[in-house]
Design goal:
Largest sheet: 4 strands, antiparallel
Radius of gyration: 25 Å
Shape: elongated
Order of helices and strands: EEEHHHEHEHEEHEHEEHEH
Strand content: 15-25%
Number of strands: 11
Mean pLDDT: 85
Strand order of the largest sheet: 9-10-8-11
């Protein structure tokens, strides 16, 4: 397949399809569902990866033992991979891509089959790779992306919608939100009054709190005006706090903008 447009460099070297890639020993890829020879044990699988990548034998023995322990596979190290659960295979796959200490890691949904403890452990490991390796991390779990990534690309149906640093993305798209608590018998009245303010974009009732989202650029004005306004209307405010937008909210806002732009065209 020939490229339709643009160019790619991997570790500074141009990518040309069909050419021998000298940098492959510094690159590793983890598919969503890693596959190993089912007749090999977990330890044998990692040793095979070390042989393929020509890792020094003394170093590889130490790394294999350390990774098996780190991913809680030491008790299953000599068990056939065919008897592993999906989560164990995923942990073995992550161990395999880290074994060669690559400069570039491409991870496709690396925590999709893991339990909460396993997800936390793997995400912590990926976070610690910052400064040592470049990690391309694809995921539908946006909370995980927000937790470990410092740069984000949003893709919808094969088309890139946005490419930005996490900080710039949140600054640009995250709307200021505030949570307000009032006396229980005043919630509906307070929400209706808040909605009348020009600086307010949206009001929602969340259990015992009112979520208020400002219009773009109006957050400071809204924060300064709301409390005096509500008190003047005989509303008793017991709590007023900022509520940070997360990446999931930003994602849906960008998607809405893209879909509205397509409809306008």
């Amino acid at each position: 397949m020939s490229a339709s447009s643009g160019n790619i460099k991997v570790l500074g070297e141009p990518l040309r399809f069909g050419n021998r890639l000298s940098y492959l020993r510094y690159v590793n890829y983890l598919p969503q569902d890693p596959v190993f020879p089912e007749g090999l044990s977990g330890k044998e699988s990692l040793n095979l990866v070390a042989d393929i990548y020509k890792v020094d034998q003394k170093k590889s023995r130490h790394r294999v033992e350390r990774l098996l322990e780190h991913f809680q596979l030491e008790d299953a190290a000599n068990r056939k991979v065919g008897a592993y659960s999906r989560g164990m295979k995923q942990r073995l796959g992550i161990a395999a891509v880290l074994l060669t200490e690559p400069e570039l890691l491409i991870l496709d949904e690396p925590v999709s089959a893991l339990d909460p403890e396993g997800r936390r452990r793997v995400l912590d490991i990926i976070s610690k790779l910052k400064g040592r390796a470049t990690v391309f991390f694809s995921s539908h779990i946006l909370a995980d992306v927000e937790r470990i990534c410092d740069h984000v690309t949003i893709i919808n149906q094969g088309k890139k919608l946005l490419d930005a640093s996490m900080n710039d993305l949140l600054k640009r798209y995250a709307m200021e939100q505030y949570l307000i608590t009032v006396k229980p018998d005043q919630y509906n009245k307070a929400a209706a009054l808040i909605q009348t303010r020009a600086s307010v974009r949206q009001v929602s009732l969340l259990h015992d709190k009112i979520l208020v989202i400002s219009e773009p650029g109006e957050s400071i004005k809204m924060a300064e005006e709301l409390i005096p306004f509500l008190i003047n209307e005989d509303i008793t405010v017991t709590e007023f706090m900022q509520n940070r937008s997360n990446l999931e909210e930003v994602f849906f806002r960008i998607l809405d903008e893209y879909q509205q732009g397509g409809q306008e065209k």
